[in-house]
Structure formats: C-alpha cells, structure tokens
Amino acid sequence: MRRRQWSALCAGAVLSLALSACGNGAIPSAGNDASTLRVWFPGNLSSEIALVNDELVPAFEAKHPGVDVQVEFVDWGNLSTRLSTAFAGNTAPDVFGHGNAAAAGFAKAGRVAPLDERVAGLPGGAADLTFLADGKVDGKQYVMPLRGFGYLIAYRTDLMTAAGLDPAKPPTTWDELRSAAQKLTVRDGGKITRSGLLLATDNPTSMTQSFASFLYQAGGAFLGPDGAAVTWNSPEAASALSFATGLYQGGDAVATGVGEKTTNTGAQHPLVTGRAAMALIDDATLKTIYEQAPEVAKNIAVAPATTGPKAAASFGGAGNGMFVSAGSKQQDRAWEFISFLLEAENLKKYTMAVGGIPARGSLAKDPELAALPYLAPYMTSAAAFRGNPVHPKWTQLRDALGASVEKAFRTPLAPQAALDEAAAAAEKVLKG
Amino acid sequence: MNDRNDQKRAAEPARRDERRAAGRPSARRVSPVRRGQRRAGWMLVTPAVLVLLIVAAVPIGYGFYLSLTSYNPVETTGPQFHGFDGYRAVLGSAEFWRALLTTIVYAVGVLVLTIPASLGLAMLVNGRFPGVTLFRGVMYLPRVVPLIAVSMIWLWLYSRDGFFNYALDLVGLPPVDFLNTEETALGSLIVMRAWKALGGSMIIFLAGLQTIPKELLESAAVDGAGRWHSFRHVTLPLLAPITLYVVVMDLIYLAQSFSEIYVLTSGGPLGSTTVVNMLVYREAFQNFQLGHASSMAFVLFCLIFALAYVNVRLLTRTGKS
Q1: pTM
Q2: B53 touches chain A (CB under 8 A)
Q3: How far A16 CA lies from chain B's nearest CA (Å)?
Q4: Do B275 and B99 meet the contact criterion of CB atoms below 8 Å apart?
C-alpha cells in the first residue's frame, strides 16, 4: 500500500474515532437485557457489601425469578465521576444510590425519573417513610432515601460531673451551651488543652454544616423559597455564624483546632482522647466511637437538638437514597427493587449493617434499633433535622459559602462580612 | 575492491540519466527487498501507532475540543461550542493564577529538597560497605509504594495524635497542626513528596555516578584535589546532564500532582494547597463544568509542554557540548 493510502487510512481511523467520541447517540447499556437490572450502590463499606450481595439481592431474585441483579459498589469519591461519564455515554445503571443534594441537578437534566405515582402506590402508603421531602425537586419525588443522618451535641458525662454539671440535664439552649462549654474548657496559661465544645470543622463543607445547625436554630435559611437568591447573609445567619466562630475565637474561646479531622475518627475522636468535653457529632461518627472505644463510649451521652433563638433544629436529614435512571428500560423492575429495599425488615437490616437513621418512622420503636445507644437519640430527634437546599447548583453555592465560612473560622474576618462575601460569589454562580 | 566501487560510482550518473529518460525518478525506484522491509516495518509499528492514537491523540484532541465548549455531562444537550471563552475565563481567574503559583512552589519546593538529598544518597550508596545493596533497596522502597498508600500513611504521621506530634511531645515541644494551618500545610506536603521522590532520583544519580571514569577521579587525586574539589570540579560537571534530566522530568511530573494533595489536605486550609489539578478535578467532577475544566487542563498542558520542550533543547545542547 502506498504512503498516501496509508496516510488516508490512518487519518480516516483517527477521524472516525474522534467522531465516535464526540457522538451523543444512544449506546445500549452493558448487560441491559430484559433479565438484568444494573444497580450502583455508593460506598465500599464491607458490612453493606455483604448484606446486599449475600442477603438482599438473593432474596429479591428469589421473589422475581429470571431477574439478574448486577450490583456494583462505587466509592463515594468516584461516584459523581462515574455517574457523569455514564450519563454522557448512555451507560447509566437502572438504579443508583446518591445523596439527595444531587437530585436537583439530575432532575433538571432529565437524567432521573419522577417517582410520585409509584410512591403513592406503595403497599401501606408512604406515611411511614421519613425524609421523603428531602428527595423532592420542585414538588416531585426523585430520590427514595434509605437512611438519614443528623448532628447532635454529644458529651462526656464523667467530665461534666467533674466540672460540677449535671449530666442528666445537658445544655439545650445557646446560653446553656456556651456556659457549660466555659466550665468544661481546660486551659494551660492562655492555651486551651481541652475544648469545652467542639464543632465539626474538618473542611469547609463540614464547617458549613456546623454553621447550618445554628442557622436553622436562629430561624435562618441558606436560600429563599424559590432558590433564586441566597439568604445566608441575613441577620439570623450572621448571629448563627458569630455564635459558631465565637466558640473558637477571642479571649473567652472554648474550642481549639479548627480544621482538625473529627468525622469518623473513632478512637481518635477528641471526645475519646479527652481533648474535648462536648462535640457536635453525627451518628456515623458516634457509631465509630462505640465500635473502636467502647469503654469511653459508656461515658458519652447525646443531648436533644439544641434550641436556638427560633427553633430546636440541627443539620441532618436524608442520607443516601436510590434513584431510577430516566433512560432505564426497566423502570418497573427498578422500582420493584427500590420498594423491596424500603420494606421495613430490609431497611432495619440495612440500618443495622450500615448505620444511619432508618427511613421508616416506625423503626424508631423497634426494640433492637432503639437499644443502640449511638442511634436511638438520633432517631428520637429525626424531626428536628434539616438538610441542604435542593438546588441544581448547590455544590457550587456550597463551595462559595464554605470558602467564606472557613475564613470566618480561621481569620479575624467578621461573620457578617464573610457571609456577604459568600453571597456576592453565589450571585455570580446563580447568574452564570 | 576499491576499483570495482570506483567503477560503480562512475557508472551511476549514466544509469540515472537512463532512468530519467524512461520517466522514472531515481528516488522512486525501490528494490523488492526494500519494499518488503518497508511494508514489514509499517505492519510492525501500526498496532503501536493505533494504540497511541486511540489512548493519547484522540482523547487529547477531544479534550481540546471540549475546552472550546461549555459542557455539563449530566445534561443531555451535549457540548455547546463557545470558542476561546473558556480560556479567557481561566486566564482572567485569580483562583487559577493562585493555584498555578501554588503548583510552582510545590514542584520547586520538592526539587529543592530532593535533588541535593538524592545526590548525597547516591554518593553514599555508590561506595562499598556492608549491606549497601539492602540500603539501596530500602531507600528505593518509597518509590514503588503507590502514592495513595504513602499519602494515607503520612496523613497519620502528620495527624494531631500521629507520630511526629508524639515525637515532639517526647522532647517537650508543643504539637504542630502540620496539615491544618496555612503556614505549615504546603511545606508538609513538600516534605512528604520529597521523601517519596528520593529513591527514584537516587537511582538515576547512582547510574550517572557509575558512568564517571575512575581514571578522572584518580587523576584529580594525583593532582592534589581533595574530596570536595573532586566532587566540585569532576563529579558535578559530569553529572550535569543527569541533573538536568532529573530536574526537568520531576518538574513535569510534579506539575501534575493531585492524589497526595487530595488525600492529605484536599486543597485546604484556605486554599493554600490548591494546585491546578485540584481545580480541574473540582470543576470537572464536582461542578460538572467539563468545558471549563478542560480549558484549565490545556493551559497547564501548555506549561508542561513548554517545560518538556526546554528539557529536550537543553539536553540536546548538553549532549552536543
């Protein structure tokens, strides 16, 4: 073959490859025949993998002969990457799990199917399902939460007693919280050696979540009702951020270590090591403490949701839930799988294995679940948990807010100025 | 033999004239054996060329196309062409320039630690002492451990209750928030990455040291040069091409750093460790702005390409000299 012909052949190959890469045509999903249901679960928790693969999927397949459920566990860190490329290549699974924060973006793009009619047809109705509202976008149900989460104040009962406080009467208001924290703080000269009250400040996102607890208690909100403008720089929000950052700053600070990792740290958590007497902590982190430091965990109790100037509330709500891909050719079967997971017995097993607040209110009364000391207080306070707004640009808005909230925690920047700065950045995101 | 060659050479112009007369240019006339060799050559390189095109050229080309578009892969609309708007946005972004500066400080910081230390180690293991092979193996070990695994180990070493703070406590010093303050986070990352890079550079320097003729060092010694002078005036100049290679290749590699920063600091605190690849990742896979992320990636690519070009030029010049 002559050189010119070779060149033409190579150019043709490159062109066809490039064009095929650029194409957005429908590519059949791998293994998407009539008998196969592809499901992605987020995370790589071994107990969850064992439960799903060894119990739930075989039970579902036994109930639905001929159906082959292909489950894949996708690490949380890779989930968005995998999903976005799967959507772009039309190879998305029939059912996938994700946080409810993703719902608005997926729904706006038409990638997930609305489930309202199916929810209404659930045996026994949907009244028992909690956190459903967190999975709605513009009034339509897109995600079915499997479990919830929440932040509450956990405290060391032994340290409270030693400080002359009654562990049976934990602080429930901002004033009580601040006063108890002062008494529990230990200083060596000007340096805090034991924090009276520690917030979750691992990174800008968790700082924002800690701030959210106080924001909701103060009666504030991140966004206006229609999501068109931010309201996180309202006077309520400024007072909430002042309270939160004031714990770490100034001569009467009661906490130290902004940015220190505390989430899921188990035996290394400051409550365990004794470097904190109270901490705003989520149920999953408390579970790791019970698993890794059971002796210290005996001396840890959890207070009900703190009552702020306006409400008793805290950051939390729906955790991961299940979506049905709009492009799935097996939407009925996909829904059958989700409704199977939502059956009380299966949700209980799921919660026992994975943790989190079960997405059925009736399970709060289950004796086995209610006996779990790291879960019971969170199930009792479930109604007080409020999550992030469901907005298609929430991750960008949250990043803008997180950057400024971090400044407020770490630098002398005034809370109101930080929130105004974040609001200005958010305006660009909303307009963009 | 020589006579026959002379005759052939003398006859060549005549043969060329004959070929021209027959309308066949001399350059086109290829013997069947040569043609077969060429064909075999093409057949042998074609799989490699195709693989290169598929895994490198096409993605790069598509990436460049995406950089000229606004594209959210979650949406069904596909890429929307907007020309160089993405590049204008990147070049006008203070966040990008800050990340670029952080990337440069990080890469140069690692090199400043790695080059002298790895050269010193290479000189040490170039000698003969009991256990030198084992020592070389141990020093090379960090190179073969995956970067993510190394990062996880150093995350613990740097943590509030980790080894370094334990050691500080033993000597009566206060704990340090290595990864948690603007003042120390980037430096801590640099130290970790330098430790990881040490073994690889050491081996390259060792290879360079072993190519230096011993006669030169012996001559220098005979001329009265001490160890320092031998090192300064013989070893270092002869290692210049190797040093240049290590510096430029490491710079190219370090400019693409991501995983260790993602694990240890995620770009914080206050964005002090946000390198360009962190921004690219955030834009592409958290905000789903694939077009904007591609523009950033291509600006970084241009800088790395420039470094690679400088590398080739300098190495060529050094080789010639």
Answers
A1: 0.83
A2: yes
A3: 10
A4: yes
